[in-house]
């Protein structure tokens, strides 16, 4: 299976496809180093950028090409569990209690959107990832709750 990075509508500000003036990047505090892996630090940064009122422009004519990455089943499972960083993002940006459970809510909404959308049928990768998430749910939820607790302790220090 392959993982593909896309930002066709410009509503995502992933570090793999944006540019920013160095001064603005530094003034906003750069990427939050609480994110120990590349998975969430860019969306958290985007939230700070928007909160600061900086203008974000989407340039549809700019092309950033990221070749599809082939992922083994082990790598796909690893991707599912990297969502612990999304929990940290939710805690930092939204201050949510039960941020881990919000990931499950998000999974449900994405599943419904994917299955009910009017676009052509979902890509096999999307369906595979959704099925994998649902199959891993009994392990994934306690895992997210564990990380939420750990992040809360880390933030209180």
Task: Report on this structure.
The chain has 157 residues and is mostly helical. The chain is built from seven helices and two strands, in the order βααβααααα. The protein has helices at 22-27, 41-51, 73-81, 84-94, 99-116, 124-135, 137-156, and strands at 2-3, 69-70. A two-stranded antiparallel ribbon has the order 1-2. The protein has one domain.
Number of strands: 2
Total of DSSP H or I helical runs spanning 4+ residues = 7
Strand content: under 5%
Count of individual domains: 1
Series of secondary-structure elements, N-terminal to C-terminal: EHHEHHHHH
Helix content: 55-70%
| Order of strands, widest sheet | 1-2
Which structural class matches the secondary elements? Answer: mainly alpha
Query: Biggest β-sheet, characterized?
Result: 2 strands, antiparallel
Mean pLDDT: 86
- Based on CA atoms alone, the radius of gyration comes out at 17 Å
How would you sum up the global shape? Answer: globular
Point out poorly predicted stretches: none
What is the end-to-end distance? 41 Å
How would you summarize the topology of this molecule?
Layout: E1 2-3, H1 22-27, H2 41-51, E2 69-70, H3 73-81, H4 84-94, H5 99-116, H6 124-135, H7 137-156
Antiparallel strand pairs: 1-2
Helix pairs in contact: 2-4, 4-5, 4-7, 5-6, 5-7
């Amino acid at each position: 299976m392959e993982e593909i990075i896309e930002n066709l509508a410009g509503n995502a500000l992933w570090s793999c496809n944006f540019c920013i003036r160095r001064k603005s990047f530094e003034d906003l505090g750069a990427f939050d180093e609480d994110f120990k892996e590349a998975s969430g630090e860019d969306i958290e940064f985007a939230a700070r950028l928007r909160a600061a009122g900086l203008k974000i422009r989407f340039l549809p004519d700019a092309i950033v090409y990221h070749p599809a990455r082939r992922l083994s089943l082990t790598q796909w499972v690893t991707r599912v569990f990297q969502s612990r960083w999304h929990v940290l993002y939710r805690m930092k940006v939204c201050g949510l209690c039960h941020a881990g459970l919000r990931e499950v809510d998000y999974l449900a909404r994405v599943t419904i959107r994917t299955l009910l959308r009017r676009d052509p049928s979902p890509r096999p990768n999307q369906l595979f990832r959704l099925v994998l998430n649902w199959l891993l749910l009994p392990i994934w939820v306690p895992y997210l709750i564990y990380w939420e607790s750990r992040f809360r302790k880390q933030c209180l220090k």
